[in-house]
Design brief:
Dihydrodipicolinate Reductase, domain 2; 12 helices; Rossmann fold; 3-stranded parallel β-sheet; alpha/beta; 313 residues; globular; binds nicotinamide-adenine-dinucleotide
Length: 313
């Protein structure tokens, strides 16, 4: 369906290693160089968040379709610019919310939409990451911290499952797992709770933590007028050892890479298909912007100890 023709990384050694794993794709130190030297249709931008805006704009201006990782950007102005540059150049823009391509999350979404639990009224998403994100994500000059790096997925899931838009966001957070990191990066937090009110009146909750070390933990529960739906689990394998001392051991999902392995492949296939079939990507720039807006509202709420109404000005 598609072929990888180039790998770009400002760490050229990393680009070379991945290119050789991919069976001899070209490797380059910058997107600018790749655009100049190789013919390609689309790019997957999986670099740090502060690079998403400049790289997306550069690619779209060169007529390349763009898949961009979450969080979409650092500011709403950047997100708006990415959406309008993509539109102006008639290229696709998809944002990396892979949970939307996970078979169980997809099944949950269709059951909710079919009315299996009646009208959804409360959605709760647990999003916890095993290890600290890279330093750029923790530094307020280059990243938006844990709520953005880990919980932007939860904001997207809340909107998606509730079929609704955020109205008010109230968040609180603390640095209890790694207080040492808060000493280096004031404002850093590693546990977070977010309470959401949706425009049509439904409620939402996000429970985040990172680094939790025990596993990669993504679980969602939706309460409806006719029942309850839950999706996601911590146990990463069906293998269980039952010991003679009557203790059981098993393995959790260690990382997002194993929990959402199938979903990452499906989201890439879907992006490529959206180009071939010339249709709207399943997760759009607008979806990325909505999750970013909610993330920025939560960050502001944490700072100001007040609920924040959307749209964020
Ligand atoms: N969807 C998911 O589940 C998921 C999981 C992890 C990370 N992410 C997202 O992926 C992005 C990258 O995160 P990461 O942890 O891999 O970051 P990282 O710091 O490990 O960077 C990834 C690579 O980008 C390269 N790079 C940096 N600037 C570049 C530039 N201007 N041009 C080319 N290469 C450049 C780095 O050398 C590095 O090899 C972030 O937006 C993060 O939020 C998404």
């Amino acid at each position: 369906m598609a072929e990888v023709v180039a790998v770009v990384d400002s760490n050229v050694e990393a680009a070379r290693n991945l290119a050789s794993l991919l069976g001899g794709a070209g490797y380059y130190e910058s997107l600018t160089e790749a655009i100049r030297k190789v013919d390609f249709d689309a790019v997957f931008i999986t670099t740090p968040t502060f690079t998403h805006h400049p790289l997306t704009v550069e690619a779209a201006e060169a007529g390349k379709h763009v898949f961009c990782e979450k969080p979409m950007a650092l500011t709403l102005r950047e997100a708006d610019d990415m959406i309008s540059v993509a539109r102006r150049n008639n290229v696709k823009l998809q944002i990396g919310f892979m949970r939307r391509f996970d078979p169980e999350f997809r099944k949950a979404k269709s059951l909710i939409d079919e009315g299996a639990i009646g009208k959804p009224v409360l959605v709760k998403s647990v999003g916890r990451g095993p290890g600290l994100p890279p330093r750029w994500a923790l530094d307020p000059k280059t990243g938006l911290g844990m709520v953005a790096e880990v919980n932007s997925h939860d904001f997207d899931t809340l909107r998606w499952f509730m079929n609704d838009e955020f109205k008010t966001i109230y968040a609180d957070a603390a640095a209890l797992l790694r207080p040492d990191v808060a000493e280096e990066f004031p404002g850093f937090h590693d546990v977070v709770v977010v309470a959401v009110r949706f425009q049509k009146g439904g409620l939402g909750l996000i429970d985040g933590g990172c680094p939790v070390n025990y596993a990669y933990d993504a679980r969602v529960e939706v309460l409806g007028t006719e029942g309850l739906l839950t999706v996601g689990e911590i146990q990463g394998t069906s293998l269980i050892i039952c010991h003679k001392d009557q203790k059981m051991t098993t393995e959790p999902f260690h990382s997002w890479r194993d929990r959402f392995r199938e979903a990452y492949i499906a989201e890439a296939e879907s992006f490529i298909r959206s180009i071939i079939e010339d249709r709207e990507p399943e997760v759009t720039g607008e979806d990325g912007r909505k999750a970013l807006e909610a993330t920025l509202a939560a960050i502001r709420s944490i700072k100001e100890h007040e609920p924040v109404n959307l749209p964020v000005k």
